[in-house]
């Protein structure tokens, strides 16, 4: 199994290379010019001489392949260049903003698990009864509602009307409550529906019927047998949701004025700041790749058949 894990870690490298080249190339195919935005923000005249000088300073006057190779040579040593707008080191800025984003994503991820698992079990246990209908109705609304719109509703209720929680900025852990709920709400609803569907599917299998024939109570069978055997698809969804929660911070951090990598990256996108955008895309690729790796490890821990296949793998 160790060989398989090392192989998966090694395969992350070409994925990052491919993702970096694609985003690098697509940004330069875009009609927007970061130099024009830079001139506007800096109040500089847009004369041909000034434009040529700025493009030379940013290295945008070179062929795309040469630009990429120069950028890649520095990126390997975690030098992603300097921001076009602030002239600060991009990687240093990401490290500065990263703790707030990780704290927000972790808070939202724990909220997703703590809410979706029990309510998913309740919905499956009370199938086609009032609790099930109520939970499914709320989940239907949650899946259809964009998280930024839900964030505005939370701000109006808990900040502007009741005054219980702050709407903007970071002033302690309580400042992350509304943003975490905003990001996690859709993930919670999706997971509840997934847990319910998987548990209902597992409940039709023979070993569940045998458990009832042995005289076991419905609650015991639901938790010990049905839910346990329905966990593998749930783990996949939870792993992917963690990456989505970090990606969702792009909008939510801007709404709640939280200084995180989402807020920072959105500013970079608005200003066509290539170094910031490229660094953000690479971080997201790395996050999703690591989430996939952790999911596979969890699969092996829960299912001996998968673990045996990994141990017998000859990928190296």
UniProtKB/TrEMBL annotation:
Subcellular location: Cell membrane
Membrane topology per record: Multi-pass membrane protein
CDD domains: TM_PBP2 (cd06261)
Keyword hit for Flavoprotein: no
Superkingdom of source: Bacteria
Keyword set includes Ribosomal protein: no
Chain ranges of the ABC transmembrane type-1 domain: 98-295
Pfam families reported in the protein's UniProt record: BPD_transp_1, BPD_transp_1_N
Transmembrane segments: 5-27, 102-126, 133-164, 176-195, 245-263, 275-302
Keywords assigned: Cell membrane, Membrane, Transmembrane, Transmembrane helix, Transport
Molecular-function GO terms, alphabetical: dipeptide transmembrane transporter activity
Gene Ontology CC entries for this record: plasma membrane
Family of this protein: Belongs to the binding-protein-dependent transport system permease family.
NCBIfam families linked: PRK10352.1 (NF007677)
Name assigned to this protein: Nickel ABC transporter, permease subunit NikB
The species this protein was found in: Helicobacter bilis ATCC 43879
Lineage per the UniProt record: Bacteria, Pseudomonadati, Campylobacterota, Epsilonproteobacteria, Campylobacterales
